[in-house]
């Protein structure tokens, strides 16, 4: 039995305490002498960060910088990726390099959408799963079988998404049922049909704005309830929520809460941010994601979720401490709620996955994002 004593740390920036770990799990009191001591020195302790929306298969992390070559539309971006993705090298290596960066920064749980289409088949899914398996015990990766090139517009993709679940993917994805695939009813019936058949959840990209997006949220809620999938569905981006009027926004939030549908944001640069306070008040689970990191879609991303938390705080116009601290909660326990991570947190009984940060407060953790971090996974100091 391995044990660890983490002295003088401040959970969530609160009063200093000692934390005790036995066999990878927090315990209230140690039952014997502890093998290893980590001196916290008054640092903040946070449970490991959770990237609730990543694209590990797309990254060029660890490779030379490649100038952006895509046009401005979603279709241009998808075509550009299909033309150049084979230049980037094996998914396993690139995804692994990015996972190593996540681990170093204390991001130990990741939900990654991974492309599935007839040209690449399941290669990217198996590549990401292999990279994750090589880092088992340090990081967990949940894979969404993602139809980046469309479901209806790319025949054969639906069958491959079902096969991806057999290969180890945990969720079925979707992409702009109206705006990209052009037939929202058939798109949603297809992806919900696979998920119901395979008994897995869904995580659907929805960039469609305004009333078109709102109408699709309502259709997603209907199907979630009809198929008994409440609590197992996530909508990613969900720009519609921040581009309809206040009344419609309120009724959509009520609907999302009624089906226990979660949302993830990757902090868009060109759309108003999600109404986080209103979502929290309604009990809607919200997670934060890095989205693509240095890939054929954009040159941005560092693998550090605190950088995204800062962007979320700035673009939401936050200045109050409680608002800025909310972004840390979303980057940690918010994502854990979206992924339904068991045993997550800093209390006795939780798995000892945590990061220690030299910051005075949660606000300083976001505004300064200190790099001198101690990352502990399953009670092992990494
Ligand atoms: Zn995405």
Features:
8-stranded parallel β-sheet; 2 domains; binds zinc ion; TIM Barrel; Urease, subunit C, domain 1; globular; single chain; 11 helices; 382 residues
What does this structure look like?
The structure is a single chain. The chain is an alpha/beta fold and 382 residues long. The protein has 2 domains: 3-46 and 345-381, Urease, subunit C, domain 1, CATH 2.30.40; 48-339, Alpha-Beta Barrel (TIM Barrel), CATH 3.20.20.140. Helices cover 36% and strands 22% of the residues. It has 11 helices and 15 strands. It has helices spanning 74-84, 91-105, 123-134, 157-167, 184-198, 210-226, 246-258, 276-282, 305-315, 321-339, 362-368, and strands at residues 3-11, 17-22, 25-27, 36-47, 49-54, 107-115, 140-146, 171-175, 201-206, 233-237, 262-265, 286-288, 354-357, 374-377, 380-381. It has an 8-stranded parallel sheet. Strand 1 (3-11) and strand 2 (17-22) form a beta hairpin. The longest helix is centred in the C-terminal third of the chain and has 19 residues, at 321-339. The radius of gyration is 20 Å and the shape is globular. The mean pLDDT is 95. The site of zinc ion has 6 residues, from loops.
Query: Total domains, how many?
Result: 2
Order of helices and strands: EEEEEHHEHEHEHEHEHEHEHHEHEE
Strand order of the largest sheet: 5-6-7-8-9-10-11-12
Specify the biggest β-sheet: 8 strands, parallel
Q: Let me know the average pLDDT.
A: 95
The low-pLDDT segments are none
Hetero groups bound?
A: zinc ion
């Amino acid at each position: 039995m391995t044990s660890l004593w983490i002295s003088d740390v401040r959970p969530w920036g609160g009063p200093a305490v000692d934390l005790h770990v036995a066999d990878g799990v927090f315990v209230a009191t140690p039952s014997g002498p502890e093998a290893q001591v980590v001196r916290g020195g008054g640092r903040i302790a946070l449970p490991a960060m959770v990237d609730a929306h990543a694209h590990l298969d797309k990254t060029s992390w660890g490779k030379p910088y490649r100038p952006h070559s895509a046009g401005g539309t979603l279709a241009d971006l998808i075509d550009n990726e299909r033309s150049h993705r084979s230049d980037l090298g094996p998914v396993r290596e690139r995804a692994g390099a990015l996972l190593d960066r996540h681990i170093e920064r204390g991001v130990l749980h990741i939900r990654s959408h991974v492309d599935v289409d007839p040209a690449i088949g399941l290669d990217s899914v198996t590549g990401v799963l292999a990279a994750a398996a090589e880092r088992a015990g340090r990081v967990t990766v949940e894979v969404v079988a993602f139809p980046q090139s469309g479901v209806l517009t790319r025949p054969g993709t639906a069958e491959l998404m079902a096969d991806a679940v057999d290969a180890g993917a945990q969720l079925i994805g979707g992409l702009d049922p109206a705006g990209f695939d052009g037939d929202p009813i058939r798109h949603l019936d297809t992806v919900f049909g696979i998920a119901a058949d395979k008994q897995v959840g869904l995580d659907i990209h929805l960039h469609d704005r305004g009333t078109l997006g709102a109408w699709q949220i309502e259709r997603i809620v209907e199907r979630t309830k009809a198929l008994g999938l409440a609590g197992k569905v996530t909508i990613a981006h969900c720009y519609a929520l921040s581009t309809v009027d206040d009344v419609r926004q309120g009724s959509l939030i009520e609907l999302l809460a009624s089906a226990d549908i979660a949302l993830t944001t990757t902090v868009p640069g060109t759309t108003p941010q999600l109404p986080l306070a209103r979502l929290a008040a309604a009990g809607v689970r919200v997670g934060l994601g890095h989205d693509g990191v240095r890939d054929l879609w954009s040159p941005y991303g560092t693998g550090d979720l605190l950088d995204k938390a800062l962007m979320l705080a700035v673009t939401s116009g936050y200045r109050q401490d409680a608002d800025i601290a909310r972004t840390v909660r979303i980057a940690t326990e918010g994502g854990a709620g979206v992924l339904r991570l068991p045993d997550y947190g800093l209390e006795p009984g939780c798995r000892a996955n945590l990061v220690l940060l030299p910051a005075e407060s949660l606000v300083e953790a976001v505004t300064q994002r200190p790099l001198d971090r101690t990352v502990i996974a399953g009670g092992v100091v990494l």
